[in-house]
UniProtKB/TrEMBL annotation:
Protein name: Molybdopterin-dependent oxidoreductase
Signal peptide coordinates: none
4Fe-4S Mo/W bis-MGD-type domain span: 1-58
InterPro entries to which the protein is assigned, alphabetical: Asp_de-COase-like_dom_sf (IPR009010), MoPterin_dinucl-bd_dom (IPR006657), Mopterin_OxRdtase (IPR006656), Mopterin_OxRdtase_4Fe-4S_dom (IPR006963), Prok_molybdopt-oxidoreductase (IPR050123)
SMART domains documented for this protein: Molybdop_Fe4S4
PROSITE patterns linked to this entry: 4FE4S_MOW_BIS_MGD
Record keywords, A-Z: 4Fe-4S, Iron, Iron-sulfur, Metal-binding, Oxidoreductase
Gene3D superfamilies: 2.40.40.20, 3.40.50.740, ADC-like domains, Dimethylsulfoxide Reductase, domain 2
Pfam family, one: Molydop_binding
């Protein structure tokens, strides 16, 4: 028996785990790590199942090659040869734009995924880069980009010190938080109330988070921007603002908000006018308050407008970049990707629908168009890393169909599932316990500054590449260096660039030093660890990998401190309250307000034991409350005469679903969880609990215009008895 420690890689909460293993390396138990200064022993049913998940017999052990409908295991050398040939043939015949890449959500939860994603996309040399960002948080980036100049400057609510938290479109009691890393989010919410603070939840469902709150308000799906404008209107018209930052655009904002008094927006969003005005007054009066919003409003038609107005309110009430309000984490690693160039979108456009590029990528909502539409630049090959868009992207069934037409597809994925079944080659990453772990992304959105590294717990089998090596070899193939090129070569290029830039950067801790000497001093057992060591040494705390190894439970770097001055990089040097792009988008709000509302609106729902599409193959995590049912308000069940099943139709498709009457969902709204619709892959347990694909109903032709983000909430549907 031995004990090992590791950060859970599944969701954004970064919980520390304590595992016991037997001598053969089998996991006997998984508990929260009580010595982790950030998560303090907290864990959830998914973290506790990490051993079961990792030992899943359906996890692929060797690369898989498909010939026609036949799959066979192959050696790594053969698999990379086939990838090299497949990509080469498409690039030779059709050029580099004919190759697309998709990076799914787990890419951002592994070291290999995050560290090589940029290099792989660059080596492919295509503009057809897609990621889970445009089915998730792209509106947040766009709003931060226009307001602060930096799309990565994402603030988090200062959960442990706030006196008033307004949550819209997030259910952290179930999701455990998103773009806000706060282990034991539910406990932190309880603590807020225990210290006399107030929690208000705005959601079309009475969620678990709403049940913990002082107050819950139903809002009509997709209308939060109106509600928030009503709050802004009240703050400005009642002179409740307390702006303590240099801002621009206050007068433009005042003009825009003048059109949205609470009395008007109330009829659109369904929240009583007096409640809207009261929320504004309470936010202004609280000693410290924060407004927090996530997936429920990002994946909606006015996603970017909502993210903007949330931060406008945080600024107007004097709660931006201050303790108890919303603040910015200061991660231990060098902050990459901060170019300090003015934020722009639309540097290129998608070929078929002309949708603007945002942060170097195009919207997933148009991937099927790019594959199906003939012409110069048609996508004919796909490199898919850690994604299952057949279940997770809008109109997934259309993608399911489109993938059949690809001349070549390679997936980096542990499973043969609904998406990877279309691949010609699947390259499986190692077991989770064979991977070292550091949360480059999530540690930039923590509610306390914190760092923790988890070394690999079990060794790799001889000849088995790490996820980083798989990504490096794909990158080398994409750049034309062939299937046999040494991944260490790429690591040296990346490290050389990192250090080379740092020694030339004024103010860097290594300014003027010799890059080769710095390289020689790096320590780590693999490329990803060397990169981590470098980024820690270039980071603001002067830490190293050795320092993190010496503290296996993680290091608390303290409560968040104000740091907007370091991040703000708008051309004006001020926080932009009414950036022209966002002000312009307000016209869309006026247009939509004039349209008659749909009879039913579909929204999503996350389930405690799920994580998007990929945990349904673990026995203890499926069944019972974790089933794919349509929540319908009992009044609507009675009015429509629904029985056990209903037929639900949208502009995109139709499904027959089991009905679960639920008081928690507001009348006129129905809720279906995503990530289900299994049955076509090799996942025995998931196939027995198949459910239906919610994204057969979501419409890929509708996006949040500024960000290109998919719309999963507020989808007009009709419901019929079956
Ligand atoms: N209707 C609706 N649709 C939604 C949402 C919604 O709320 N409603 N939410 C959206 C959101 S927020 C997101 S983030 C997306 C997620 O959508 P995707 O990014 O497509 O992610 P998943 O569906 O979770 O699929 C993850 C894939 O990664 C594989 N995988 C798991 N671990 C690893 C690993 O360590 N390495 C590699 N290489 N692969 C791994 C899994 O087997 C699976 O195939 O779904 C979106 N889709
Ligand atoms: N258990 C579990 N945890 C997860 C995941 C999972 O699949 N399962 N996925 C992970 C991922 S990838 C992410 S991005 C995060 C997301 O984490 P959260 O952002 O907390 O996502 P949800 O739990 O989907 O909460 C969204 C809420 O928005 C509500 N909503 C829907 N439409 C609207 C609207 O128009 N207005 C308002 N105000 N509310 C609306 C929904 O009812 C729901 O309660 O969760 C992560 N954690
Ligand atoms: S809350 Fe998230 S990070 Fe924590 S144990 Fe559960 S799945 Fe893992
Ligand atoms: Mo997500």
């Amino acid at each position: 028996m031995r004990t090992a420690h590791r950060t859970c890689p599944i969701c954004d909460a970064v919980c520390g785990l304590r595992l016991t293993l037997n001598d053969a390396g089998r996991v006997l138990s998984v508990k929260g790590d009580p010595d982790d200064p950030f998560s303090k022993g907290y864990t959830c049913p998914k973290g506790a199942s990490l051993g079961r998940l990792d030992e899943d017999p359906d996890r692929l052990r060797a690369p898989m090659i498909r010939e026609g409908s036949q799959w066979r295991e192959a050696s790594w050398d053969e698999a990379f040869q086939v990838v090299a040939r497949g990509l080469h043939d498409v690039i030779e015949t059709h050029g580099r734009q004919a190759v697309a890449a998709f990076f799914g959500n787990p890419t951002f939860h592994t070291m290999g995924g995050i560290l090589y994603r940029g290099a792989l996309a660059q080596a492919l040399g295509t503009r057809n880069v897609f990621s889970a960002s445009t089915v998730d948080q792209m509106p947040k980036h766009v709003a931060c980009g226009f307001m602060l100049g930096d799309p990565l400057a994402i603030s988090v609510p200062d959960l442990d010190r706030t006196d008033y938290l307004l949550v819209l479109g997030a259910n952290p009691a179930v999701s455990h938080g998103s773009l806000c890393a706060a282990p034991d989010f539910p406990g932190r919410l309880k603590a807020l109330r225990q210290r006399g603070g107030k929690l208000v939840v705005v959601d079309p469902r009475r969620t678990r988070t709403a049940a913990m709150a002082d107050e819950h308000l139903f809002v009509r799906p997709g209308t939060d921007a109106y509600l928030l404008f009503g709050i802004v209107h009240t703050l400005l018209s009642e002179n409740l603002t307390l702006i303590d930052l240099e801002v621009n655009g206050l007068e433009e904002l005042r003009l825009l908000a003048a059109e949205f008094p609470p009395e008007r927006v109330s009829g659109i969003c369904g929240v009583p006018a007096q409640d809207i005005a009261r929320l504004a007054r309470e936010l202004a009066a609280a000693p410290a308050a924060a407004v927090y919003t996530r997936v429920g409003t990002c994946t909606a038609e006015f996603g970017t407008a909502v993210q903007w107005l949330v931060d406008v309110i945080n600024v107007l009430t004097g709660n931006f970049d201050r303790p108890g309000g919303v603040m910015f984490a200061k991660p231990a690693t060098l902050e990459l990707g901060r170019t300090r160039q003015p934020f722009v979108t639309g540097r290129w456009h998608s070929r078929v629908r002309g949708l603007p590029e945002v942060m170097g990528e195009l919207p997933v909502a148009t991937l099927a168009d790019e594959i199906e539409t003939p012409g110069e630049g048609q996508v004919r090959a796909l490199v898919m890393v850690a994604g299952n868009p057949v279940l997770s992207a809008p109109n997934g069934p259309r993608l399911d169909h489109a993938f059949q037409d690809l001349e070549f597809m390679v997936c980096v994925d542990p499973y043969l599932n609904e998406t990877t079944r279309h691949a010609h080659v699947i390259l499986p990453p190692p077991h989770i316990l064979q991977m070292p772990h550091y949360d480059f992304l999530l540690l930039t959105v923590t509610v306390r500054d914190y760092a923790r590294f988890s070394p690999q717990i079990l060794p790799l089998e001889p000849g088995r590449p790490s996820e980083g090596e798989i990504m490096a070899r794909l990158t080398l193939i994409a750049s034309g260096q062939g299937a046999d090129a040494d991944p260490a070569m790429l690591d040296e290029v990346i490290l050389g660039e990192l250090l080379g830039n740092a020694v030339k950067t004024p103010g860097s801790p290594v300014e003027g030093r010799d890059a080769a000497e710095l390289r020689a001093a790096l320590r780590g057992d693999s490329g990803v660890e060397l990169m981590l060591d470098a980024m820690l040494k270039l980071g603001p705390y002067g830490l190293s990998l050795a320092d993190l190894l010496a503290e296996p439970h993680g290091i608390d770097l303290g409560a968040l401190r104000p740091r907007l001055g370091e991040l703000l990089c708008t051309a004006s040097g001020r926080v932009e309250l009414a950036p022209p792009e966002l002000a312009h988008d307000v016209a869309r709000l006026h247009e939509r307000a004039a349209e008659p509302p749909a009879e039913f609106l579909l929204i999503g729902r996350r389930q405690l034991r799920s994580n998007n599409s990929w945990l349904h193959n673990v026995g203890p995590l499926v069944g019972g409350s974790n089933s794919c049912t349509l929540h319908v308000n009992p009044a609507d069940v009675a009015r429509l005469g629904l029985g056990e099943q209903a037929v639900i139709r949208s502009a995109a498709g139709e499904l027959t679903v089991p009905v679960e009457p639920a008081e928690s969902v507001m009348p006129g709204v129905v809720s279906l969880p995503h990530g289900w619709g299994h049955g076509k892959g090799r996942q025995l347990v998931a196939n027995k609990h198949a459910g239906v694909n919610a994204n057969a109903l979501t419409d890929e032709t509708v996006v949040d215009v500024l960000s290109g983000n998919a719309v999963f909430n507020g989808v007009p549907v009709t419901i019929h008895p079956r």
